[in-house]
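Milestone M4 deliverable, item 7.
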Amino acid sequence: KGQYLVFETDLELDHVVETVPSQFSKGVIVWSTVYGNIIVGPTAEDQQSKVDRSTDEATMSRLQAWAAKVVPALDGAKIVGSYSGLRTATEFRDYQIKSFPADGWVTVAGIRSTGLTACGAIGEYVVDLFEKDFASDGCPSTVPRHERTSSEAATASAPTPAIADNSNNDKENDKDEKDTAFSKTCSRAEADLLGVSKAKKSLATPRFACQLEAVPTLQALSKEYQVRGDGCVTVYGKLWKVTHPIASFGMETYSGKQCGTTS
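Output delivered:
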């Protein structure tokens, strides 16, 4: 579990204050948000509960003392709240990704903060596991997706076509024809897919575009949040609940000055 403390202050940080990472944690960080708040955290606490997201006074006191130590101007700054989050940690330091063909299952676990950066590569790796261990034709492919030619990708990815039953049932025959057409469509689509490494080098034209109204300014959103009092704001004509603590604390205290090093 990681706990955070949120300050309301006129102090502006133009950089993130970060400690030297250890074997177990990146350390407690101090940074400012676009709302003008300054946040210190997170902690790194092992716990058995998968739902306990409470904060405690002792930890908040330690975070307050740490913030004042690394940024002396925060000594005595107003505290507006605290929050915590649970990490998908295991007893291992590395990702836990493994397929279980007999159970028809692929486990993707232990993905912490680095999952945001590694999600594309993790996805490719899982697809390779799936195609190797769960190939529909019973002949798993041993060539990773990103190393295949288009024809190899199409062959490995295409679903097994439905087999006609030789009956005179027109409805069943019609269904078989649709299934076969669907297989061909899937094959073409799969053959066009690129791995992450190749995709980022290939510019693609969007298949469609839609015109949306302008997103409200941070000042407008915060004003609506404060006036409504129900924790909601309006975007694209729809009412949305603000759920992340950084945004909710920020909108509660926003004074109209946009700043910060993170969003």
